Amino acid sequence: MTGYDKNDNVLSSQCYGQTSASVYALIILTGNLLNHVDDTATTSAYNNGFEFKDGVKQANEYVYDANGNLTKDLNKGISNITYNVLNLPTGVTFASGGFIQHGYTADGIKRRMMYKEADGSGNPVPTVYCCNVVYENSVGRLLLTEEGYVTLSDKKYHYYLQDHQGNNRVVLSSSGAVEEANHYYPFGGVFASSGNVQPYKYNGKEYDGKKGLNLYDYGARMYDAALGRFTTVDPSAENYFNTSLYAYCGNNPINRIDLDGLLLARILIYKVL
Asked: Fold for domain 3-266?
């Protein structure tokens, strides 16, 4: 033990043990932190899909803070990510310029997003989430429903066709015309699509592709489908001692889904006899 407070509570400790075949030293546990990813592919398999983009090649491409939150992603050109006390991202800054900011309620519900282009032109574009209504630049854009959404500009209904995982495969207009179609990798990347009329994709979660961010917002955490990893530690980590704190669905996206970045759910398929 290396530190105590005035009430004799432990403030810090250091653990020593065997770190290799012949070395006994201070144990530093960083085994779940991804350092770098190498990809020999230089082009997308088809139609610039949702594959991993190897932006740099160096030993440390990902940087984390003391809580295990991702603060830099050099492959995406992210120079800094800031977090609030709930470990939710409040700001994303890009090396090429531009930023994304998020605002939350006290219980961690996202209510606001601001986006600024790299060239600094114009004002930041605000998106506000008020219950099931989405506003952009103070103008109502979408009214979200259980079946899909309503575009408020023309008051037209649009409907989702979902698979057994809740993935939005097809978006239909009120007349039945196909407006968007998505095909997903098991971990959620879109490998082919037609149309891009709305942001809710894999598991029905909001996808943010601005500036190549390419993350799904699961509520409690942001998810990188190209890596199959969340960007922060699972707040329910004590319930899952046998798996990585960053892994999506315990690395089993075929039989499980993640409802909100906190809890796994098994997919049950019944056959009607």
From this structure: RHS repeat-associated core (2.180.10)
Note the pLDDT of residue 13: 66
Calculate ∠ Cα 160-219-35, nearest 5°.
110
117-139 pLDDT, tens digit per residue, is: 765 566 788 999 999 999 998 99
CB 110 within 8 A of CB 217: yes
pTM of the predicted model as reported, rounded to 2 decimal places: 0.86
Q: Structural domain boundaries of the chain?
A: 3-266
Nearest to 175 by CA among 158, 197, 194, 200: 158
Q: How confident is the model at residue 191 (pLDDT cuts 50, 70, 90)?
A: confident
CA distances from residue 68 to 27, 167, 244 in whole angstroms, order as listed: 17, 29, 12
Residues 107, 76, 57, 72, CA torsion sign: negative
Please tell me the distance from the alpha carbon of residue 239 to that of residue 263, in angstroms, as a whole number.
9
The Cα–Cα gap between 28 and 50 comes to 34
Tell me: the pLDDT tens digits for 205-214? 999 998 889 9
